Fold these 4 entries.
Entry 1:
Amino acid sequence: MSLIKLTLPDGKALQVEKGSTVLQAIEKIGTRLAQAALSASLDGKLVDLSTKLEKDASFKVHTFATIEGKETYWHSTSHLMAYAIQELFPGVKFGTGPAIEEGFYYDVDCSKSFTPEDLIKIEEKMKELAKQNFPVKRIEMRRGEAIKFFDKRNDHYKVEILSELDEDMVSLYEEGKFIDLCTGPHVSSTGKIVAVKLLNISGSYWRGDAKNKQLQRIYGISFPTQKELDEYLKLREEREQRDHRRIGKEMKIFTFNEDVGMGLPLWLPNGEQLFHTLQEYMRREEEMAGYHYVRTPVISKGKMYERTGHIPYYAESMYAPIEIEGENYYLRPMNCPHHHAIFSELVQSYKQLPYRIAEAGSVYRYELSGTMNGIIRTRGFTQNDAHTYVTMNQVADEVVRVLEMNMRIYEKVGLKNYWFRLSLPDFEGHPEKYSGNVERWEAAANELRKAAQRIGKDFIETKDEAAFYGPKIDIQSKNIRGKEETIATVQLDIMVPKRVGLNYTDENDKPAIPVVIHRAILGSYERFIAFLLEQTMGKFPTWLSPIQVKVLPLSEKFREYGEKVWMEMRKNGIRAELDSTDQTLNYRIRNAQLEKVPYMVIVGEKEAEAKTVSIRTREGKQENGMPLEKFISDILNEIKNKE
């Protein structure tokens, strides 16, 4: 039998017989690797261990230690879960059930509303099916045959998916009595799945469209060992303590209401105060840095977005147009077109450059229901937005100014654990996503690269992450689930200025086109506040805290003195609240701690007689008998210095 050559990641060659399986090839590398293997890649394509080897190829093995291995394992577990549900709830139908960044889910159409008790039953059934160690078999058939197969089972979800495919051949996977449409790969048998935990249930519209039926989405996680699952569940519990949704509720920062709509947060008084304090701070910093604040409308003619290129490149993220007197208007998805109009009105000469425009601008973007996450990703949000109009020679200096401003502000508000990413286009893989010529893109990218190098902070470069109009520097961080998120961006726009006719008169008295630097130091206020809540657990520095002091009289008898203390603080601009409810002191202290109030001022008989206060910090430190004037002076200094 003829031999074929498999090239391993380290460049070494592995000779195997043509027609042998992927698993047999892995066994030649090592028995332990074969036991741990879940799938493999042939020339970059993911395949099952049962796949037959027919030609020379690059070869990579995936265990649970790799991203691809985890995806294989978790996707296989979603099928096992669907099998268990099918056994327990006959007649159920399934939407899609992919692996996700951590674990898996399956969308289920069932007349019964699942309960936490049902999840326990499903888990037990999954373990039972796993122990039976059913082989997982790949079945290939013509698309038409697959449509007939699922149509016969009254499975309209799979029929709909199949009807939209272009491929002539499709694949199904079978384990025991369960068969599902899937591209794979999957683990070789159900016995590979050892430790499983179903986590929660949520609603999800079929295909993410609110016009379709709402299904029940069951989330889960699985691991090859119980020890790994236990460690994950402990980590998950710690993350839940840091979840901005949980902390935001405890601190009364924001809420959501079904009648208002998904992804549209309602800011409660504490949240509005936090929002306002951040906005005031940013406005002062930006005006000191030479930015001109403006205010622009949240709705504009469609012609504006056609000229800028947003409609052809960004239409899927925009809300449907509103027809007014025969013309289409859109809720704005970004502020830049309005700022360009202001530049055209105010700037004529190169002597006015750089020209900086800033706005706390509300924007609206259509996000699928399954992608939204508290206030990290919403459908309506306010950007800390600015646009600077420069010559290409001014780009590096201006970007350095912006990045240094970013770092200074993040230090003041207590944001840590972030990094810079230079986001570049991928003209080879996805040229349709980017407008303009390669040379101009490279020149712009080099200016950003120079700026990033000058600030002396490490950065990574990533292809296919640029905006359609230019490269950018993204400031990245991870949320509590380990998912990478973009906090802020510094983007170069080398295309739109020409498209919309922006120009100025250069030093030779000739018309020239500016480069636009799009910049949002906080990104959106919503997302930034979410990151602050998770990183600080709501323990903001005093200057930023929505409530800086809670005044707690020991009893009703000392309410009058408590009111005097409270009013004196309010007169001095301190955000103080009086809690003189009938609850016990310990209960009121606990409430203040849940709201992460930096200082609790406790007043009783001694304090009222001596005109002093007793101070308790949110960390639990206590100081008794402090003169009220000294406490006010100390906290005002702390606020002024943003400590």
Entry 2:
Amino acid sequence: MFSAVLMILALGAGCAGVETRGGKEEADVMLAVPFFPQDAYQCGPVALAEVFGFWGRDVTPEEVAAEVFNPRLSGTLSMDMVLHPRRKGFRSSAYWGGIEDLRDKIRKGLPLIVLVDLGFSVVEKNHFMVIVGYNDDGVYAHSGRDRNRFFSYDELQRIWKKTGYWTLLVEP
């Protein structure tokens, strides 16, 4: 438990702007996760609102942001990403994930929030996104202003590895 708390605190706030890219082929598995286009630095509240909506709890990103967004950090702490769902009656757990775990959870109907780093070199640009589907070539994520954005497995590994493969599972 103590190491999980340290992991959460060490990762700090996340939310970078996201550039738009095109998609790929059809998904093998795609979950019907609601989509909210992200305003600047609101990736955490958006990701939580999308997953809450998937589980039948309709809330807006603005409602979530009022409780978790930290304007001084221009983002949301990963610790708040874990604790906020619990305060709302959900179970949540953060852990070090992996590609096979993502595929397994999506196949079981469980969307996942991942923290990726879209920065370069020593410049961090942390960003939360919701993994909603996959195929043999990569995953689909609600990310920034992009619904079902495709990330090849190589691209996902590159940006996810920098956060230690931080993953959040939220369930009713």
Entry 3:
Amino acid sequence: MTASGPAFDRTIWRTLGDPLVAGDPAGPLHGRTAAVKDLYAIAGHPVGAGVAAWLAEQRPAVDHAAAVCALLEAGVDITGITRTDQFAFSMAGQNADYGTPPNAAAPGRIPGGSSSGSASAVALGQVDLALGTDTGGSVRVPASYQGIWGIRTTHDLVDRTGLLDLAPSFDTVGWFTREAGLLFDIGRLLVPETGRRPLAPSRVLIAPALQLSTEPDIAETAARTAARAAELLGLAVEEWPLPPERLDEWVTSFRTIQSYEAWQIRGNWITTHPGALAAEVEARFIAGRAATEEQVALARGVIATAGEELSELIKEAVLIQPAASSAPPPVDEPALIEQVRGFTQRQTCIAGIGGLPSVSVPGLGAGPLPYNVCLVGAPGTDLDLIELAGRLTES
């Protein structure tokens, strides 16, 4: 605990300072505070990845991760390092080693993961912003479950140097805020100008296949948001006739590649450290070990074809979809949590497969529990997506 900083909650924070690392006082964002997910290198501190046995073997990082450097140079103070689900391979936010961070918007319910500590720190008002990562939904889902802003950036657009990988084919830098303006400011800081593209849609898309396993209120909110976006842009809403069976194939292929790449990276360590991971997390890695070369090649072919289809679909469009299939489930219902994970992957895999930016937008629905809507655009339209999302919440 510090005199002026947030109280130390070990479920949220791994390390906390006042600040932990000070930003440049001459930077344009001086006075802002940030949390950093425990996958990013911070000089002088080891990367723990949410696994106690892993952390015990790591040496302090020599250099800051690229995204951390950018924040510090802009004047942002790093308040501390936040918890992640083990090796970032979960959407729940529950960690067998360190516990479950609180959900500020829905006490007693899961916070969402894997960027759980970062989302909770922002939602609780302990920091202004937080770095997370998004492979299969690890920013978009916690943002939805806690009613805050979040973004998954265009794949390979924001520098991932100094970031621990999960599945490089899908890994991206992301961040959380409580307001659209700051989400945009961090985007201007982290998204390189050379990779930016204007959002110039000729249509607004919704996909009935993405609504099939989604709670009705959330599906209705996504549809209303699409109509509102179309009105703002002077466009029409069109349905994307994605066959449900093709979506099933995409989700299965996404999972195959994610697990396979994760095992290639961490498999040796997991093999020599039996019992270090929660059973459900280890099972996801083991699925990657079990994947045959033929299965992986087939999955990569499916993803490549799907990526081409999405590229053509989205190049002059914006897709409006639920951020998650439901509001956050209760923390003590593991079967429901796993079921919801499967349904939610049907939403989150779209941006992952296409390498597309996706903004998780709060405040568009009604009801006692939080949920967000996602805006998905063409590669490089990250900043324009945030701007459009901000207009939607103001209208």
Entry 4:
Amino acid sequence: MRNPLIGPILHILREHPEGVGEFEILKTLKQQLPELQDIAVDINLQLFRQHFLIMNALYQLQTSLWQEESLTLSISATHIRILSTKQVPSSSSNEVNNSVEAKLAAYYLDWNEYEKTDEQEVSRLLNSFYQGIYLTGDREAALETLQLNQKSPTKAEIKRQYRKLAHYAHPDHGGDTERFISLRQAYECLMF
């Protein structure tokens, strides 16, 4: 199915030969097409659908620009730009980039992904994303803050250690407010 945003997005890209970010594209499209703000009641689902429609249009456009004009459409969230073949940088990481790019394109070109993604799925995706960000580098720091020597303490052990340390760090017991807050943050990180 041809995405109706292809024309407006191509116009935006041609107006910004230096490139433009996805957020700027969305902002411009919302001004031109107010109905984009009514594609879902839930705000997170609406943002997902707006993003999906833009990315779908970009990947359709990427294919047609290459086939019809031998132009490359470079796509990232922060910088989207039409490039001539002379402007395309060569890189040793092209194979990796191409495989990631191919997976992203396949996802965004599949209208079933758009249709099957509901509020619950968006919520799950967001939680997974935030949890991944939160846990990656912070887990070790949280273990250290709570003075837990083992790599995988049980929830009960985390809770027990947090309560013990929080009792002494609590401002009502003459403790340090900043220490208490850092203990709480570590506890929250580990309990997810």
